[in-house]
Design goal:
The chain contains 11 helices and no strands. The protein is mainly alpha-helical.
C-alpha cells in the first residue's frame, strides 16, 4: 500500500512522516499528565475518607508565584472545571506536597516518585535551549517515566476499585439522556428521560490505561528535538497564546 504524499515528495528528498511532530501541549499536559492526575483522583475517591477535601484544601493554600507562573488554584481543583493546559502545568509543578501522605504506604511513595518523574520529564522536554547533555537527561527521564508508570499501574492502581469521577459520570448521563431524547438508543422517547439517565449513568469502573498514542509519542521527543529544535517550535501552545 503506497502513500500519495510519499510518492510526490520523495523526489525532493522529503519524508512524509517527518510532517508529524510531537505536540507537548496535547500529548503531555492535556494527555499523559491529565490522564494520570484524573486517575489519581479516582484512587483518592476509592480510598475513601476526606482525602479529596484535603487535596482541595492544600491546593487552595498554594501561593501564587510571579506574574503568571503559578496562578491561584480554584476552590475545587479536583473537579477540574474550566482548566486549560497552563492550569494542568501549574498543578504538576505544585502537586507533590499536595499529594504527600494522602495515601498509605507503600502507595504514597510510589505516587510521589511518579509525580517527581513526570515533573522532571516535563521540565526537560520544555527547555527552550537544548544541548547534548540535556537531551541525554531527557532520554533517561523518558525511560524512567515508563518504568514509574508501569510500577504505578501494577502496585497502586490494581489495588483500588476505581470508578468514574462524579463529573465523568454526570457527563455520560447527559450524553445518554441526549441520545435517548433523539431516539437513538431504542428507548421510548415518551418515557421519562431523566429516569433513563439515572439508570444508565451509574459510575462505571475505570482502569489506568497505558496503551495510548499520547504516551507512546513521548519516546519520539528526543529525536524530534534533534531534528527540529526545542519542543516550543512544534507545540500548539504558542499558537493558542497568540
Amino acid at each position: 500500500m503506497k502513500n500519495a504524499f510519499s510518492e510526490k515528495l520523495r523526489k525532493f528528498g522529503n519524508n512524509f512522516y517527518d510532517l508529524f511532530v510531537p505536540d507537548l501541549l496535547h500529548e503531555f499536559e492535556l494527555g499523559v499528565w491529565k490522564a494520570t492526575f484524573s486517575h489519581t483522583l479516582r484512587i483518592l475517591f476509592a480510598a475513601g475518607g476526606d482525602r479529596i477535601q484535603q487535596l482541595n484544601e492544600r491546593f487552595r493554600q498554594v501561593p501564587t508565584f510571579g506574574r503568571d507562573t503559578i496562578r491561584r488554584f480554584t476552590k475545587n481543583t479536583a473537579d477540574m472545571k474550566k482548566l486549560a493546559a497552563r492550569d494542568f502545568e501549574d498543578i504538576l509543578q505544585c502537586c507533590i506536597p499536595v499529594f504527600e501522605g494522602l495515601l498509605d504506604e507503600p502507595f504514597n511513595a510510589i505516587l510521589l516518585d511518579l509525580l517527581w518523574t513526570l515533573a522532571v520529564w516535563h521540565a526537560l522536554a520544555k527547555l527552550r535551549m537544548q544541548t547534548s547533555s540535556t537531551l541525554a537527561h531527557l532520554d533517561n527521564a523518558t525511560t524512567a517515566l515508563g518504568k514509574r508508570l508501569r510500577l504505578f499501574k501494577d502496585k497502586v492502581c490494581d489495588h483500588f476499585a476505581t470508578r468514574e469521577l462524579p463529573r465523568e459520570s454526570a457527563a455520560r448521563g447527559r450524553r445518554t439522556a441526549a441520545l435517548a431524547a433523539k431516539g437513538q438508543m431504542g428507548i421510548d422517547t415518551s418515557s421519562d428521560i431523566a429516569d433513563v439517565a439515572t439508570i444508565l449513568s451509574g459510575q462505571h469502573l475505570k482502569t489506568f490505561n497505558l496503551s495510548t498514542y499520547k504516551l507512546h509519542a513521548l519516546g519520539d521527543y528526543v529525536s524530534s528535538i534533534k531534528q527540529f529544535g526545542p519542543s516550543d517550535n512544534t507545540s500548539t501552545q504558542t499558537v493558542r497564546k497568540s
